[in-house]
Amino acid sequence: MNITEYASYFHDGSIIHIDHLDSTILISMETSELSEEDLHDDVELSEQNALKGILHLENVKSLSVDGSPLYTKLAMLADEANILRFEFAKNKVRFFVEWINFPPKKEINLYSDIIIEFDNFFWENSPHLPDPFR
């Protein structure tokens, strides 16, 4: 399955979790709802009729947030991130996200423009990936 063919479906999707391990970043995420006609491959959808899984970005070369280099590990700033824009180029991804907290946590009004450059990537389709807020 070529995840780049589905990049536009991540608009209105979400980032569920981020693991930043040395030079690898794992981003657990899901698309907005898909129909069977939207699929180009034989792939299992989640209960919410979405692609759900982990984007593996290997040998990360650079990372910036809101136009400034990030020298620490990329991490979740809230419970979840709504994906407002997702762009996928050959060796670069760009997320524009709205961070969301769920009650009883206080609401926040925070947005981030995240750009990650890397050497390799792959998509691990995981339709049963747990989401702690669902």
Distance between the termini: 26 Å
Report the mean per-residue pLDDT as an integer: 92
Percentage of β-strand residues: over 45%
Give the helix tally.
0
Largest sheet, spatial ordering of strands: 1-2-3-7-6-5
Q: What is the string of helix and strand elements? A: EEEEEEE
Q: What is the general shape?
A: globular
Helix fraction? Answer: under 10%
Overall tally of structural domains: 1
Q: How many strand segments?
A: 7
Radius of gyration: 14 Å
Could you list the spans in which at least 5 consecutive residues all have pLDDT below 50?
none
**Derived structural class:** mainly beta
Sheet bearing the most strands, described? 6 strands, antiparallel, barrel
What does this protein structure show overall?
The chain has about 130 residues and is an all-beta fold. The protein has no helices and seven strands. A hairpin with a 2-residue loop joins β1 and β2. The mean pLDDT is about 90.
